[in-house]
Amino acid sequence: MNQLVISCSLSPTSHSALMANRLVNELRKVGDETELVDLRDVSLPFCDGNASYDDTNVAMLSAKIEAAHAVALAMPIYYYDVGGAARNLIAMTGSSWKEQIVGLLGAAGGRSSYMSLMPIGNSLMLDFRCIILPRFVYATRQSCGNGKLIDAAIQERLGRLAGDMHHFASCLRQFNDSPENSSQKCTKGSR
Ligand SMILES: Cc1cc2nc3c(=O)[nH]c(=O)nc-3n(C[C@H](O)[C@H](O)[C@H](O)COP(=O)(O)O)c2cc1C
Questions:
Q1: Which fold has domain 2-190?
Q2: Which residues does the UniProt record annotate as the domain NADPH-dependent FMN reductase-like (predicted)?
């Protein structure tokens, strides 16, 4: 499987990036080709619904999202929602998310924002018919220390999410590749 993990925090000491890196390792452990995109390294214009779509990084990211069998988004939680860089990424890459399998990771300060990944999941589901994996990984500031992910429970959840990304993507590919299902292909293989 060809998997993509996008870290959406612009913070130099990002916990989202720690989780994203760990997820990449877990996906590689299950044998998947996995690429990490860190938005700190990719400058994206703010979406203006117009000429900003012509930016070359928009085309580059859209192509990676479209080519992946599943995509994970690791995002900071700001004001009970995901940070603006993640929202801007979705606005800029729009239809490349069509029917994608998506895993969601959130880096937060405390425990009370645990529902904050729902709105972005809803909009990906409603706008682009994404399959949102029902295994969110939500880490608080206690989960990280000295630039490392130190919470064993979060590490375990990242391993499980990697397993789910692999499993869902493989099952759909198997289904779509089967001649019996040629008239009823679903999601990623149906385009
Ligand atoms: C502007 C701003 C708003 C924040 N809002 C919340 C919030 O609503 N809930 C929460 O738990 N943490 C909040 N935090 C804390 C961040 O979620 C936390 O610092 C997290 O580590 C950010 O992810 P990152 O390290 O990947 O950048 C906020 C931080 C900032 C800078």
A1: Rossmann fold (3.40.50)
A2: 1-116
Contact 119 CB / ligand 1 (< 6 Å): no
Per-residue pLDDT of the chain (191 residues; tens, 9 = 90+): 999 999 999 999 999 999 999 999 999 999 999 999 999 999 999 999 999 999 999 999 999 999 999 999 999 999 999 999 999 999 999 999 999 999 999 999 999 999 999 999 999 999 999 999 999 999 999 999 999 999 999 999 999 999 999 999 999 888 888 888 777 766 665 54
State if residue 9 touches ligand 1 by the CB under 6 angstroms criterion: yes
Point out the ligand 1 atom lying closest to the alpha carbon of residue 74: 26
Domain range list for the chain: 2-190
Ligand 1 centre to CA of 24 (Å) is 22
Kindly write down the DSSP assignment for every residue of 15-80, as one continuous string: HHHHHHHHHHHHHHHTT-EEEEEEGGGS--PPP-SSGGGG-HHHHHHHHHHHH-SEEEEEEEEETT
Ligand 1 geometric centre to CA of 118 (Å): 16
Residue 75 main-chain phi, psi, to 5 deg: -135, 145
Task: Indicate which atom in ligand 1 lies nearest the CA of residue 19.
Answer: 26
Residues 6 or more apart from 79 whose CB is under 8 A from it? none
User: Does the CB atom of residue 110 touch ligand 1 within 6 A?
Assistant: yes
